[in-house]
Design goal:
Elements: H1 2-23, H2 27-34, H3 45-55, H4 57-60, H5 75-78, H6 81-90, H7 104-115
Helix pairs in contact: 3-7, 6-7
Domain Cytochrome c: 43-118
Protein name: Cytochrome C
InterPro entries: Cyt_c-like_dom (IPR009056), Cyt_c-like_dom_sf (IPR036909), Cyt_c_BACSU-c550-type (IPR012218), Cyt_C_IC (IPR008168), Cytochrome_c550/c551-like (IPR051811)
Length: 118
């Protein structure tokens, strides 16, 4: 009887390993998730301001002066556009990720707009 139980456990472990083999992300997917690549976009100031008004002012204030989140009025002096893109895409600290809320091009546009604030 023990052989049947051990054989069943071994089969279940092998099946689980095969499932994990096909469902876990690969190195390239993990690297992209850890350091997202900013798409090339042309800065559209009006669009960036509209996105910020819709998505950012709750935490960062209507003039980006800060509130729950830090001030973004001089964000470009602290981070370049690619760093801002990564922060907005992945989130950081209390800031949530926006990768499921905004398109990568929208995040890139906002990142470029914020990078100009020095």
């Amino acid at each position: 009887m023990q052989k049947w139980i051990m054989g069943g456990l071994f089969f279940a472990a092998c099946a689980f390993a095969v499932v994990l083999l096909f469902t876990l992300p690969g190195k390239a997917e993990v690297a992209e998730e850890n350091n997202p690549t900013m798409p090339q976009v042309t800065l559209d100031t009006a669009s960036a301001e509209a996105i910020v008004q819709a998505s950012c002012i709750t935490c960062h204030g209507d003039q980006l002066q800060g509130g729950l989140g830090p001030s973004l009025q001089q964000e470009g002096a602290q981070h370049n556009a690619e760093e801002i893109y990564t922060i907005v895409t992945k989130g950081r600290g209390q800031m949530p990720s926006f990768k499921d809320k905004l398109a990568p091009e929208e995040i890139a546009n906002v990142a470029m707009w914020l990078a100009e604030k020095k």
